[in-house]
Structure formats: structure tokens, C-alpha cells
Design a protein that fits this description.
The complex is a heterodimer of chains A (about 170) and B (about 800).
Chain A: H1 2-15, E1 26-33, E2 36-43, E3 50-60, E4 72-78, E5 86-90, E6 100-107, E7 111-119, E8 125-133, H2 139-142, H3 144-168
Antiparallel strand pairs in A: 1-2, 2-3, 3-6, 4-5, 4-7, 7-8
Chain B: H1 3-10, H2 16-39, H3 46-64, H4 67-71, H5 75-95, H6 99-105, H7 108-120, H8 122-131, H9 134-149, H10 151-159, H11 161-183, H12 197-217, H13 224-228, H14 237-269, H15 272-283, H16 287-307, H17 330-337, H18 341-362, H19 371-390, H20 394-397, H21 404-411, H22 426-441, H23 448-468, H24 473-478, H25 480-488, E1 494-498, H26 501-506, H27 511-514, H28 542-546, E2 552-556, H29 561-565, E3 568-569, E4 573-574, H30 579-597, H31 601-614, H32 622-647, H33 655-663, H34 667-685, H35 689-699, H36 720-748, H37 755-778
Antiparallel strand pairs in B: 1-2, 3-4
The chains are: A alpha+beta (about 170), B mainly alpha (about 800).
Chain lengths: ~170, ~800
């Protein structure tokens, strides 16, 4: 019972894991907007339909001091069709790196998407960039570690038994 | 405080995989270290523990602290991360001499069965010795350092998280190999001269100096990622690179030259270890002999420690603690020991059943709005299977159908013997097959009236059968739910068992089966000392209350042990000796997959297409045909084929006994499929009961719970973790099934050729079922019992 309890507790702990990196990723845009410099990162790289993370890093253009008190909204728009816009507020809580404000968006389909970053505060501004979003990988591929690990355990067990038998013989 | 630094201090990434792995490793080490320290405090000082824990903390700091998110913005932070992984964590871990503490800290079964064969393998030990030889470890370490600092590789690691993980793993692994010969953690005994470490560390320092110098003094930014990245704290990309180079240079050199200095002192002025080594060498005349002796000592000691023989054991005495016992847990145990506990649970379930029947017959004939459409098919099934996973047959413990039989026994004779021809599980096998078909054919989840009538029929059957016949004939021979619980509880972690066998051996009165004037004995005629599994045990706890010695408990057992060992069972014989039990195991295993497949879109669409193709009147045979094939024809063919293939290797027993024995190996996988399926419904729709209950009470004129908010009863997309949990259940079921098949094959053919031929067909069958289960779980599923829209 004890080893099973031990393995069970470990397995349960791992069940709550999230593979996605909270923020950062590829730099999509870095430009000056008024008194500030805006850098936008997206993850994963390359972007795929499904959950994507858009992180915005706002700095004072002169001093490089981070600006974190500006309200930022991120909107994703499919370029090739109308409607289906996804808008979400970027917050520091969603970002691992607290210099950033991040928003997690669920892109329903692959294709060309336009991302619009709306900055609030004293000098409101809107920045845009377009990028290609590829098809998500097949579900079995993203879940491969969950499906594959027992086979690894079984393989180790087989090696273990062979070694044990060799020693006995 | 600078805003950048303040943000840095708050930027802690969420890394549960890493944190859990490090926590488990630390726990295992601590457990082993305490154990070893009790035996030899001088060899296991606190410094070793501190070093090892500091090593783990360094890994945590490198990968799960603000360093990780800031490594994307500043090369110097990234360099710091790599330095922690390569220069600090590995020597600290080796200073903890982790081999023996980790080995001793593992649970004994894992240590003996899993770790020892690897540790004793001469091939693996030779490989490790070669990898940690300075002539191999240094080139590996240098290669990893230089290759990953090439711009192409470094950029790839910055862009793709997969490459980043690989980079960290290769840094840590090669660094562990590199630092092993320097630290020489106990009990390793290098077979090369200590003087070799001088050129070893100097060479490492030289390559580090060259690389860091190139980085620090370069006139261009090596990595375009950092050239493009926004500047933090006004640090330019080139200045950042120079700082990274300096960081690599100075602390790196200290890390290499510090041990070199210590080593030089030790070689020059000697040490206790060296002196003892010298004495050993003298005693054995030649260096070679000394090394062999040391290696032999290591072998002997590691084997003793691994086997647990190293501990100075007290004289053998009878085991007094039978392990975990649910009945001894403060609140739950006290409640379960209370003689009226079962009645209370049954009354609660009876009230719910009465509400289900009433609402099913009088309420709206629409499943998601009726208690009979929600409570039995979402909540009761989910909690039943989770109860089986967590404890055991709690479903039978709280069964409301057995309450009216007490009344029946007063009114009816209750003295007849159950017909001999029906004293098997065949009737229940048939009823279960019919139920699986009827559930799909009549869409029971969506017809509360039908569900209510089934519940009523259940009460009537229990009343009549137990009113006319002796014992708990209904539970033992008729109840399909009971048979489901009996088979699935073979995988449960708890079992009604005796605490000390010696007390039962001396007992002559056997109240556990005969009962006392105030408490009945086991109605299913199971003698607890001879019980070897949960089969046929309703967890009624009558034996617990009847035993005058308080010697019956709900004890922890290895899940599925009865499936592997096939011990004789009181009142049942050997499980694998009975065709009806094997058929029940097969039916419930394949039933799990058929029942789940019946609600996934591709199967539903395929059956609909088939109905259109065959047309009327054959269309009405499609669902029965599907269940006939899935529950009877396919399992029979597969089991017969696997059995025939197993026997073709020259097995002494015939096909049928082989099939019976191996059928039980499939039970854990079937259990995991039921668990995945029912937990899906439960967790996606658990709050569907709230508006239904509000409506039900409102209909009765009790509006205390307010108006129903039907939005709560709508289907919602399953959470990410739920699919992970479902796959995890299936994974564990697969492993338990494969292990059971392995143990059965060992029993049937302990040695010799043909072992694989015996095991392989059943392993393939288990693998096939596993992949079928994965496929089912990845399909879109119908949200039965909930409202269709948001």
C-alpha cells in the first residue's frame, strides 16, 4: 500500500500541471508610442489555434522604467472572415513576469489573425500586428506524455525483470 | 526599490511538475537520511542533509523562481540560471551522498523490486563508472557548454520551450557527471589517481575562461533574441552580454579553482580518508587488489542497505500493527463503528430514492429537469465509482434496496433455500447485459419515468427475493449493481479483514458469521479470517459489530491483489476456478468500453448510419446487435484467441482455465474506464442537481431554496484537468492490468522459454483496450442529463 500511496500522491500532484508557459515567447512588436515603448510577445512559438498568450511590456521610452498602471486590452480578429473577435484585458496577474501584462486568448481556428493592442491611460494608443496562426497539433500529440508514460514505466519494468532474472540465473 | 527589481521579486512562475518532483525527492532523501543517521550518526552528519537540500533548492531557484521569466529578457539572468544548474546544484547534490539516503528512503517494495536490480546490474554500473571517469565526463561537459552557447542552438532554446527543457536537462546531466569525480560522493571509490583531477579542473577552467572571454569582449551581440528584446533598466544588449560573460568568468573560475585548491591541500597535507586508503592499499599489497576489495565492500554494503538487511533489527516479534485501518480514523472510523451507521446511511439513500421515484413518476418527463434524470445517472454513479476508488464497496454499505427486505422478512417466510441451479453469477451476468442494452435502447437517462419504474422494480425484487429466501440471496445472486460493486471493489484499496489472525485462530464461537443475539453475522456467509478479497462483501460491517474481540477492521490492502494471486476465498473457492465470475469480469470490462463508446459522436453516428442502411425493421436490431457484439461476441473471441495463443507455448493447462485466470487481469482497466466515464459526467454536471432540486421542492410547495436557475443545469465544456485525470485513471488501470497479467503468467509458467508467449497475447489485448479507451476519451461526448444549451 505504501508505494502505491506514494505514487498516487505524486500522480495527483502532477495532474494539476500546466504545460503552457505563462508569458514571454516570440517578440512580435516593439515600437514607440508617444512617451512609451511597447513590446508585445506571443506564445507558443509558432502560434497555433487554441490557447495563446499575448504579453505586453510597456516602458517609459526615455528611462526604460516599466509602466504597469495602464489598462491594456488585447483583441484578436480573424483577417479572412468577419466576426469572431476575441477581446480580453491583459493583466499582471496572468503574467509570470510581473513587468508584463498578459492575456490568454482562445483562438478557435487557424489562419491569419490580426492582434490589436489598445492602451489606455493618459496617452491612449492602438497598435496592430498580423500573424499566421497554424493548425493546432492533433489532440493525441499534445496529450502524448499522458498516454505514453505508462509504456515507459512498463519498459523500465521489463528491463528491471530481465536484469533480475539474469542475476538469479 | 527600483520597479524592475520589485517586479522581479514578484515574478514567481508556476511550475508544479518541477516543484512536485523536487518535493518528492527531498521527502525520500529525508526519510532515508533519518533512517541511516539512526544507525551511523558520524557518517550521516547534518551537513550532508543540508548540502543535498541546498542542491535541490538551487535547482528550484534556477527553474522556478523569478530567474526563469527574466531569463528571456536579460542574458545575464539566463547565464545566472545556467551557472546555478551547472556549477552550484550538482556539487551540492553530490555532497549529500544521495545514493544510500534515496535508496533507504524509498518504500521497501519499490526499493527491492525496482531499484536493486538496476543498482546491481554490472552493465549499468560499468556504464556509470565510465561516464563519470574524468576522461569522459570532461569532454561531455565541455561539449554541452560550447554547443549550447552556439547562437543557433541558444536561439532555438529561447524560441522553443522543448529545446529549452532539453538544454537545461543536458546542462544538469553533464554537470552531474562532471562534478561526480570531483566530489566523489560516498560510497564511490574512484579507480584512477586523484592527481588526474588537477588537469581536469584546470582544463574545465580554461575552456570556461575562453568562452566567457569571447562573450564578454565580443563587439557584437551573439544572440539576436536579446538584441531585439526590450531593454530592462536601460542595460544595452552588448552590456548585458558583457555582464553575462563576466558572470560566467568570475564565479565560474571560483567554482573550478576552489575545489582545485582544496584538493591540493588534501593531497599535500593528507587526510584521514587518504590515510585509511593507504592502509588499505598496504594491507592488500597492490593497488589493484585494494580497488577490488573496495568495490566488493561497496557491492556488499549497497546490497545490504538496499535489501534492508543493513539495519540492526530487534529480535523478531509478531507484527502488531496491521497497517492503515479506516475504522480507527477519528471521525469516520467512529461513525462506521457505530452499529446504527449503516441504517442512517441507508435511510438517507432511501429518502433520496423515494424522491427520485416520486419525481420520476410525477415530475416533468425531461431528464435534465427531473431528479430521476439527474441524481441516479450523474451523481450516484459518479460517487459510487469514486467511493470504490477511495475506499471500497460503499455503494452496498448505503444501499437503500436492502432496507425494505427487513419488512419483507417479517411478512414472508424468508426460509427457503435459493435454488441450487441459480447459485452462481450467471443470472446477474444476464441482468447486467440486459441493463447495458436497455440503458441505451430506452435512453434511460432522458426518461425519468422509466428510471423510476426500474427503481421500484428493484425495491420489489429485493423485497420478494429476500422475503422468501434465506440469507442475502438478492445481493449475492441477483443484484446487478451489487455484482458491479463486487468486481470493481477487487481493485479498491480497503478490505474488511481481520486485524490479527492469531485471535481468530483461537476463536471458537465465530460470531462474525454466526452473529450474536443482538447483531447478525455475515448474511453472505463469508468467514472473515478466510476472506481473501472484497468479492461478495457488501461492507455491511455486521462482522465488525459482531466480533467480540474487535478484531475486524477496514484495512488497507494492495489494490488488485486478489486478481493476481487467486487465493481460495471462503464461500467462493478460487475466483479463477469459476466460469461465471470470469464471465462477469469480462462483461464488466468490455461493458465499460461499450457503455462509454455508446455516447461518443463517431459511434453514435456510425450506429445511426447503420440504421439508415439496413432500414426498417432491422434498424431496431442495431443497438441490441452492438451490445451483443461488444459484451459477448467480441470478448469471447478475444479471450479465446488470447488463451489459445497463450497455451500454444506449451502451457500445461487448457484454454478455458487460462482464459478464466487472465480475465481477472482486465478488471483494473475496466474499472479505470468506468471511473473515467462516470467522473466525466460527475465533474461536468455536478451542479445540474441544484435547479432540479429547487424545482422539485417548489413543486412540493417548499420554496425555501428559491427559483431554479436553469443555467446551472446546462452542459459546460470540460476543464483541461478533467481529460488529464481521465487519462491518468486509464494509465493506472493499464499498469495494474499489465502487472496482474505478468503475475498470472509468472504463476502459470514461473521460468523457462514461452513465458513471453504466455503473457504477450493478454498484454496485447490489454494494450488494445487501453488505446480503445484513449480514443473514446478523446472523442466529443454527449452531455447526458444536462440541458443542451447555455
Amino acid at each position: 500500500m505504501q508505494p502505491l500511496r506514494f505514487l498516487g500522491a505524486f500522480a495527483v500532484a502532477l495532474m494539476w500541471c500546466n504545460f503552457a508557459r505563462g508569458d514571454g515567447g516570440a517578440l512580435r512588436l516593439s515600437q514607440r508610442s508617444g512617451d512609451s515603448r511597447v513590446s508585445v510577445f506571443t506564445a507558443p512559438t509558432p502560434l497555433r489555434a487554441g490557447k495563446v498568450d499575448v504579453s505586453v511590456f510597456l516602458q517609459d521610452a526615455e528611462t526604460s522604467r516599466p509602466i504597469t498602471d495602464v489598462e491594456i486590452f488585447v483583441t484578436a480578429k480573424p483577417v479572412e472572415r468577419r466576426g469572431g473577435n476575441i477581446r480580453k484585458r491583459a493583466t499582471a496577474e496572468e503574467a509570470s513576469n510581473k513587468l508584463f501584462q498578459a492575456a490568454e486568448l482562445e483562438l478557435p481556428a487557424a489562419g491569419r489573425w490580426e492582434f490589436v493592442i489598445e492602451l489606455g491611460g493618459r496617452a491612449p494608443a492602438t497598435l496592430r500586428f498580423e500573424t499566421e496562426v497554424s493548425e493546432p497539433p492533433p489532440q493525441w500529440q499534445t496529450l502524448a506524455p499522458w498516454i505514453g508514460w505508462p509504456w515507459l514505466v512498463a519498459a523500465i519494468f521489463c528491463v528491471n525483470r530481465v536484469l533480475k532474472q539474469r542475476r538469479c540465473s | 526599490m527600483s520597479p524592475n527589481f520589485e517586479a522581479f521579486l514578484r515574478s514567481w512562475p508556476f511550475e508544479p511538475w518541477l516543484s512536485a518532483s523536487l518535493a518528492v525527492t527531498a521527502g525520500v532523501y529525508l526519510r532515508g537520511w533519518f533512517d541511516l543517521r539512526k544507525r551511523d550518526a558520524a557518517r550521516w552528519p547534518v551537513a550532508r542533509l543540508a548540502a543535498f537540500l541546498a542542491g535541490l533548492a538551487t535547482i528550484f531557484l534556477a527553474l522556478a523562481s523569478p530567474i526563469e521569466p527574466f531569463a528571456d529578457l536579460l542574458l545575464q539572468v539566463h547565464m545566472l540560471q545556467h551557472l546555478l544548474l551547472m556549477m552550484l546544484a550538482p556539487p551540492l547534490i553530490w555532497l549529500g551522498a544521495p545514493l544510500f539516503p534515496l535508496l533507504r528512503g524509498l518504500p521497501s517494495a519499490i526499493r527491492r523490486e525496482w531499484a536493486v536490480p538496476f543498482l546491481r546490474s554490472p552493465t549499468l554500473r560499468r556504464l556509470f563508472e565510465r561516464l563519470t571517469h574524468p576522461c569522459v565526463a570532461l569532454p561531455l561537459f565541455v561539449a554541452a557548454t560550447w554547443l549550447w552557447h552556439a547562437p543557433v542552438a541558444y536561439e532555438a532554446a529561447l524560441r522553443r520551450s522543448g529545446w529549452h527543457y532539453l538544454q537545461h536537462i543536458s546542462f544538469l546531466t553533464t554537470a552531474l557527471l562532471f562534478w561526480h569525480p570531483v566530489v566523489r560522493p560516498y560510497p564511490s571509490r574512484p579507480r584512477w589517481s586523484h592527481w588526474l583531477l588537477f588537469p581536469y579542473l584546470i582544463a574545465a577552467d580554461v575552456q570556461n575562461t575562453v568562452l566567457s572571454g569571447l562573450l564578454a569582449f565580443s563587439g557584437r551581440v551573439w544572440y539576436s533574441h536579446y538584441a531585439d528584446a526590450p531593454r530592462v533598466a536601460g542595460i544595452s544588449a552588448l552590456a548585458d552580454q558583457a555582464a553575462a560573460g563576466a558572470l560566467m568568468w568570475v564565479p565560474g573560475s571560483i567554482a573550478y579553482l576552489g575545489p582545485l585548491f582544496a584538493l591540493a591541500l588534501r593531497q599535500l597535507f593528507g587526510s584521514e580518508e587518504r590515510a585509511s586508503g593507504k592502509r588499505a592499499a598496504t594491507a592488500n599489497e597492490t593497488n589493484r587488489n585494494a580497488r577490488h576489495a573496495q568495490r566488493g565492500a561497496f557491492d556488499h554494503q549497497s546490497a545490504r542497505l538496499a535489501d534492508g538487511a543493513g539495519r540492526r533489527r530487534p529480535p523478531a516479534r509478531p507484527r502488531t500493527s496491521p497497517g492503515f485501518d479506516l475504522l480507527l480514523i477519528p471521525l469516520v472510523g467512529r461513525f462506521l463503528r457505530w452499529p446504527r451507521a449503516r441504517t442512517v446511511l441507508q435511510l438517507a439513500m432511501l429518502m433520496l430514492a423515494a424522491a427520485v421515484i416520486y419525481d420520476g413518476l410525477r415530475g416533468p418527463e425531461f431528464g435534465p429537469m427531473n431528479l430521476a434524470g439527474v441524481l441516479p445517472w450523474i451523481h450516484w454513479r459518479g460517487m459510487l465509482i469514486m467511493g470504490l476508488l477511495a475506499a471500497g464497496n460503499l455503494g452496498c454499505l448505503a444501499c437503500p434496496f436492502t432496507l425494505p427486505r427487513r419488512v419483507g422478512r417479517r411478512w414472508l417466510p424468508a426460509g427457503w433455500h435459493w435454488p441450487r441451479a441459480l447459485r452462481s453469477k450467471w443470472l446477474a451476468v444476464g441482468l447486467l447485459a440486459v441493463f447495458f442494452w436497455a440503458y441505451e435502447e430506452f435512453s434511460l437517462w432522458d426518461h425519468p419515468g422509466r428510471t423510476a419504474w426500474i427503481a421500484l422494480a428493484y425495491f420489489a425484487a429485493a423485497f420478494v427475493v429476500d422475503g422468501l429466501f434465506r440469507g442475502a440471496s438478492f445481493c449475492k445472486y441477483v443484484c446487478p449493481i451489487g455484482q458491479f460493486n463486487f468486481i470493481q471493489s477487487l481493485v479498491s484499496p480497503l478490505e474488511v479483514k481481520v486485524r490479527q489472525a492469531s485471535i481468530c485462530a483461537a476463536c471458537r464461537t465465530k460470531e462474525c458469521i454466526r452473529g450474536t443475539p443482538t447483531t447478525p453475522g455475515c448474511e453472505l456467509q463469508l468467514l472473515v479470517p478466510q476472506k481473501s478479497s472484497n468479492m461478495d462483501c457488501t461492507f455491511c460491517l455486521d462482522c465488525v459489530h459482531a466480533c467480540p474481540h474487535a478484531n475486524v477492521g477496514l484495512l488497507a490492502v494492495s489494490p488488485g491483489h486478489a486478481l493476481r494471486t487467486d487465493s481460495p476465498h471462503d464461500g467462493l473457492g478460487r475466483l479463477a476456478g469459476r466460469n461465471d465470475l470470469a464471465a462477469l469480469a469480462l462483461l464488466l470490462t468490455f461493458g465499460a468500453f461499450a457503455n462509454a463508446a455508446g455516447m461518443v459522436a463517431p459511434v453514435v453516428q456510425a450506429l445511426d448510419r447503420l440504421r439508415l442502411v439496413v432500414g426498417s425493421p432491422w434498424a431496431s436490431f442495431v443497438t441490441p446487435g452492438f451490445y451483443l457484439a461488444a459484451l459477448i461476441i467480441v470478448p469471447t473471441i478475444l479471450a479465446a484467441t488470447a488463451s489459445a495463443l497463450s497455451c500454444s507455448g506449451g502451457l500445461r493447462q487448457h484454454g478455458l482455465p487460462t482464459a478464466r485466470r487472465f480475465s481477472f487481469a482486465l478488471v483494473p482497466l475496466g474499472f479505470s474506464m468506468w471511473l473515467a466515464h462516470y467522473s466525466f459526467h460527475f465533474f461536468t454536471s455536478y451542479d445540474a442537481a441544484i435547479p432540479v432540486m429547487q424545482r422539485f421542492l417548489g413543486d412540493l410547495g417548499l420554496s425555501g431554496l428559491g427559483e431554479p436557475h436553469w443555467v446551472c443545469g446546462c452542459c459546460r465544456p470540460p476543464a483541461d484537468w478533467l481529460l488529464h485525470a481521465e487519462l491518468l485513471f486509464l494509465d493506472l488501470g493499464l499498469l495494474l492490468s499489465l502487472y496482474a497479467a505478468y503475475r498470472i503468467a509468472c504463476d502459470l509458467r514461473p521460468t523457462g522459454q514461452g513465458f513471453l508467449r504466455t503473457l504477450a497475447p493478454w498484454s496485447l489485448l490489454i494494450a488494445g483496450l487501453f488505446f480503445a479507451g484513449v480514443w473514446i476519451l478523446l472523442q466529443p461526448m454527449e452531455m447526458r442529463g444536462t440541458l443542451p444549451g447555455g
